[in-house]
């Protein structure tokens, strides 16, 4: 047992080290199809590669409860939370990391070291206070203790002294058992679910509890009740016990007593465990990267940063870039040659926003952001099934974003990468210019990457660029953002490097 515990602890520590060093391929992550459909098909997931095997949600997912995993996804994707009691204060992670930076690490060990497969999620049910079983059987509730006690006594005496009516007694008990059998199975299912949750999260319950002795009693009693459910595997002994003493009713009454005594405590701790489980990935992110900093809400609604970088870039590859102050209605156009870092820069800002909106720290300094609603259009998808082209897919997404911006009280922040590629350059320029004008009227903050230098002439745009450098006759990139419009291109160089001849380069 100790050897297994040591192996699981070692696996946990090695995964933490892989997150720290950026060796993400060493971490066992979820497949895309293992995510809920609404999460993997979410525009942010598609555009920012969040649900891929090497995506952020996969790499930093440490959740172990089914509900906690769902809350974690919603929290990062900025989706509304239906379960109000699971909503966490955005300052919660900040307070944890300031008071006790290693709290997340130690608590993760309580969650993850128990025997489980990586990425396995467990149910932790809430106690249902409604007592529908006894509501339908009020007479039976008062009658069964007497009858359930006298039945086995009479049967024992009857067998000893050859008393009559034993078959009739067993028949009556059998009829009673059949009458409540279907409902009692539901009660047993609840007992097994609660017992399994108590066993799985025993250390976590005790770790988070204020009254540890009472919590240990709560876990001990429901676990003992859960042990009784093993008899359901053997139908014959289970039937005999109910024929003798109405055994299910005694256990259902024990469950009711347990709920009356411990139900509120269980539900309080269950909510606390799930909430903690859902924000631990973000707290752990802050623990792994102490150089990270918390963002601040901007009272003026602006967006800016002294420096920021994409959280999935390994330390050795990180290039921090500033974000100039963007006010509602501002447009930033980023130009530059291929592979120079334009799209990565947009994704760095978007990921920093999602981290900040989740209450997590970001890799950067002095990040200020407004109450925002984020939209991305980086990777358009066509659909053969629906007969939708790339161009029409983009148009529909843009239309939905504009309509959404009209009804939102938050500042819309858009990340657009080479939009409207599926039409000719003249119409693309006119359409893009008009879309950007509408978004400006909606007070949206817009980031746009483009190779079309004519777009950079839009008068209200803030212009920045990335470029390549020549080093020993080879292309080199420093991934640093610069003011102004890019004056270089590298498409032909890339073609020639890959062996594709360019015969009339002067044209």
Please, could you describe this protein's structure?
The chain is an alpha/beta fold and 507 residues long. The protein folds into three domains: 2-125 and 278-288, no CATH class; 132-272, no CATH class; 296-497, Rossmann fold (3-Layer(aba) Sandwich), CATH 3.40.50. It is built from 18 helices and 13 strands. The chain has helices at 2-21, 37-40, 43-48, 56-59, 66-76, 92-99, 103-112, 132-135, 138-161, 166-200, 202-208, 212-228, 235-245, 247-288, 342-357, 390-407, 425-441, 491-497, and strands spanning 296-297, 303-308, 321-326, 331-336, 364-365, 368-369, 372-377, 411-417, 445-449, 461-466, 468-471, 474-477, 482-483. The strands form four sheets. It has a six-stranded mixed beta sheet with strand order 7-8-9-4-10-13, sandwiched between helices. A three-stranded antiparallel beta sheet has the order 3-2-5, with helices on one face. Strands 1-6 form a two-stranded parallel ribbon. α9 (138-161) crosses α14 (247-288) and α10 crosses α13. The longest helix is centred in the middle third of the chain and has 42 residues, at 247-288. The chain is elongated, with a radius of gyration of 31 Å. The model is unreliable at 382-388 and 490-496 (pLDDT under 50).
């Amino acid at each position: 047992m100790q050897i297994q515990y040591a192996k699981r602890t070692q696996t946990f520590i090695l995964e933490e080290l892989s997150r720290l060093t950026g060796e993400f391929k060493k971490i066992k992550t979820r497949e895309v199809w293992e995510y809920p459909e609404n999460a993997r098909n979410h525009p942010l997931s598609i555009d920012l590669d969040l649900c891929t095997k090497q995506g952020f949600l996969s790499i930093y997912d440490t959740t172990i409860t089914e509900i906690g995993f769902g809350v974690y996804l919603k929290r990062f994707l900025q989706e509304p939370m239906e379960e109000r009691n699971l909503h966490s204060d955005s300052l919660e992670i900040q307070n944890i990391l300031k008071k006790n930076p290693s709290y997340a690490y130690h608590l993760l060990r309580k969650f993850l070291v128990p025997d489980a497969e990586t990425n396995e999620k467990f149910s932790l049910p809430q106690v249902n206070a409604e007592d529908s079983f006894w509501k339908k059987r009020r007479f039976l509730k008062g009658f069964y203790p007497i009858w359930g006690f006298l039945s086995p006594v009479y049967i024992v005496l009857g067998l000893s002294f050859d008393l009559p009516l034993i078959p009739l007694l067993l028949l009556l008990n059998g009829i009673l058992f059949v009458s409540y059998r279907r409902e009692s199975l539901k009660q047993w299912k609840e007992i097994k679910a609660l017992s399994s949750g108590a066993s799985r999260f025993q250390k976590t319950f005790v770790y988070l509890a204020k009254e540890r002795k009472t919590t240990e009693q709560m876990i001990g009693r429901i676990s003992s009740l859960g042990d009784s459910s093993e008899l359901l595997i053997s139908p014959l002994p289970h039937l005999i016990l109910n024929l003798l003493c109405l055994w299910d009713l005694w256990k259902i009454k024990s469950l009711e007593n347990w709920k009356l005594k411990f139900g509120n405590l269980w539900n309080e701790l269950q909510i606390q465990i799930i909430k903690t489980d859902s924000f631990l990935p973000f707290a752990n992110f802050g623990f792994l990267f102490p150089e990270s900093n918390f963002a601040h809400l901007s009272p003026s609604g602006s967006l800016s940063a002294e420096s920021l970088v994409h959280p999935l870039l390994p330390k050795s590859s990180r290039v921090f870039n500033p974000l100039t102050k963007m006010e509602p209605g501002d447009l930033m156009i980023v130009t530059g040659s291929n592979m120079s870092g334009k799209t990565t820069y947009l994704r760095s800002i978007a990921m920093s926003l999602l981290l900040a909106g989740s209450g997590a720290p970001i890799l950067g300094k002095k990040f200020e952001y407004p109450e925002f609603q984020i939209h991305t259009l980086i990777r358009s998808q066509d659909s053969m099934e629906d007969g939708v082209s790339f161009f029409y897919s983009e148009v529909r997404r843009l239309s939905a974003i504009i309509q959404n911006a009209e009804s939102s009280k938050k500042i819309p922040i858009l990340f657009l990468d080479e939009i409207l590629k599926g039409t000719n350059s003249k119409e693309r320029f006119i359409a893009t210019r008009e879309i950007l004008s509408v978004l400006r009227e909606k007070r949206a903050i817009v980031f746009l990457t483009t190779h079309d230098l004519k777009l950079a002439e839009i008068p209200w745009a803030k212009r920045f660029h990335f470029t390549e450098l020549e080093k020993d006759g080879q292309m080199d990139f420093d991934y640093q953002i610069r003011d102004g419009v890019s004056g270089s291109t590298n498409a032909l160089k890339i073609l020639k490097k890959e062996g594709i001849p360019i015969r009339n380069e002067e044209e």
